[in-house]
Amino acid sequence: MKTLDDLLGEGVSGRRVFVRADLNVPFDKANPGVISDDGRARAVLPTLIALRDAGARVIVASHLGRPKGAPDPAFTLAPVATRLGELLGSAVVFASDTVGEDAQAKVGALADGEVLLLENLRFNKGETSKDDAERGAFADQLAKFADFYVDDAFGAVHRKHASVYDVPARLPHYAGGLVVKEVEVLRKVSETPENPYVVVLGGSKVSDKLAVIQALLPKVDKLLVGGGMCFTFLKAQGHEVGKSLLEAEMISTCASLLEQADGRIVLPVDVVAATAFSADADHAVYDISEIPADRLGLDIGPKSTELFASAIAGAKTVFWNGPMGVFELAPFAAGTRGVAEAITKIDGFSVVGGGDSAAAVRTLGLDETAFGHISTGGGASLEYLEGKTLPGVAALEK
């Protein structure tokens, strides 16, 4: 597939370039309109700066959250436009709609080197429609804005959406540096990982990670399981898990995976369990065979953290997706912190698989440069490792 470097080599001065970015940033729940983690905005900066400095008229588009195909003030990208301007060091023009009168007027008024951000793409139902004609009609409108298309939204390439899949079919299209880097990294850990290869998985549900477990299990030396999903595995081993998160319908599947793994799946040996899902709840460390019936596990315990860190220590390749506990609450952050710190110390290549794992790195104040690569796409990363075709990448390769 052609890349941003190819486009810059062709020359973009005075030309309009449509950039699909992933600006789906989280906001501070206590302070509406305040971005709590601008990592995704910072990730697309190199592409935007390169195009701006080359004299392009840059039209940026992104989704935010899950509005239902119509304008919703709760999901406006207006605060993101402000933050993006701060990061770029120059104001970003904001269009109050996606393809309406305001967007059309502001696209038409763009000068060389200016950057415009369209309102949330998902305010138009054509963006996510499963109907090819409806999605295509919206793509037609977006494509009319530009001469070229650049996709630098790795976090969205697993979606068959108008701005990801259909617009590149209508314009000369190029992969941004972020997308190129993500694909290179994931190809490395899925096809040619250096052993020992350790995968660390967390998060809430086994069902969300089942396909990636099945795809990676034959390739890994150790697969460490923490987070809420570990309790279904522990139940499959015969342990009682109290009020911890449990997918009863997945117990037999977990038992089968443990048998197939022949000791390569490593589970916690102790957990931090509390009386309620709250930072103020009474909590203590329990051996996995002694979890009280009235408590729920919210983090792996200190012995488990040491066990996981020991398994990570000798690895040459580590892929991590999913926190070990509810890291947003201080009493239940130690497991995620301990595992993350162990990953930073390996003499090898480490990948943080986006999503909550990337958020944990920033929330816990860890050194981002200590990891080999921090992905911007949790879902896209997992689907790539599962062996699925990513619609956005396929569109760029055509």
Automatic annotation (TrEMBL):
<comment type="subunit">
    <text>Monomer.</text>
</comment>
<keyword id="KW-0067">ATP-binding</keyword>
<keyword id="KW-0324">Glycolysis</keyword>
<feature type="binding site">
    <location>
        <position position="209"/>
    </location>
    <ligand>
        <name>ATP</name>
    </ligand>
</feature>
<dbReference type="InterPro" id="IPR001576">
    <property type="entry name" value="Phosphoglycerate_kinase"/>
</dbReference>
<feature type="binding site">
    <location>
        <begin position="354"/>
        <end position="357"/>
    </location>
    <ligand>
        <name>ATP</name>
    </ligand>
</feature>
<feature type="binding site">
    <location>
        <position position="40"/>
    </location>
    <ligand>
        <name>substrate</name>
    </ligand>
</feature>
<dbReference type="Pfam" id="PF00162">
    <property type="entry name" value="PGK"/>
</dbReference>
<keyword id="KW-0808">Transferase</keyword>
<feature type="binding site">
    <location>
        <begin position="63"/>
        <end position="66"/>
    </location>
    <ligand>
        <name>substrate</name>
    </ligand>
</feature>
<keyword id="KW-0418">Kinase</keyword>
<dbReference type="InterPro" id="IPR036043">
    <property type="entry name" value="Phosphoglycerate_kinase_sf"/>
</dbReference>
<keyword id="KW-0963">Cytoplasm</keyword>
<feature type="binding site">
    <location>
        <position position="297"/>
    </location>
    <ligand>
        <name>ATP</name>
    </ligand>
</feature>
<dbReference type="GO" id="GO:0016301">
    <property type="term" value="F:kinase activity"/>
</dbReference>
<keyword id="KW-0547">Nucleotide-binding</keyword>
<feature type="binding site">
    <location>
        <position position="122"/>
    </location>
    <ligand>
        <name>substrate</name>
    </ligand>
</feature>
<dbReference type="InterPro" id="IPR015911">
    <property type="entry name" value="Phosphoglycerate_kinase_CS"/>
</dbReference>
<dbReference type="InterPro" id="IPR015824">
    <property type="entry name" value="Phosphoglycerate_kinase_N"/>
</dbReference>
<comment type="pathway">
    <text>Carbohydrate degradation; glycolysis; pyruvate from D-glyceraldehyde 3-phosphate: step 2/5.</text>
</comment>
<feature type="binding site">
    <location>
        <position position="328"/>
    </location>
    <ligand>
        <name>ATP</name>
    </ligand>
</feature>
<feature type="binding site">
    <location>
        <begin position="22"/>
        <end position="24"/>
    </location>
    <ligand>
        <name>substrate</name>
    </ligand>
</feature>
<comment type="similarity">
    <text>Belongs to the phosphoglycerate kinase family.</text>
</comment>
<feature type="binding site">
    <location>
        <position position="159"/>
    </location>
    <ligand>
        <name>substrate</name>
    </ligand>
</feature>
<protein>
    <recommendedName>
        <fullName>Phosphoglycerate kinase</fullName>
        <ecNumber>2.7.2.3</ecNumber>
    </recommendedName>
</protein>
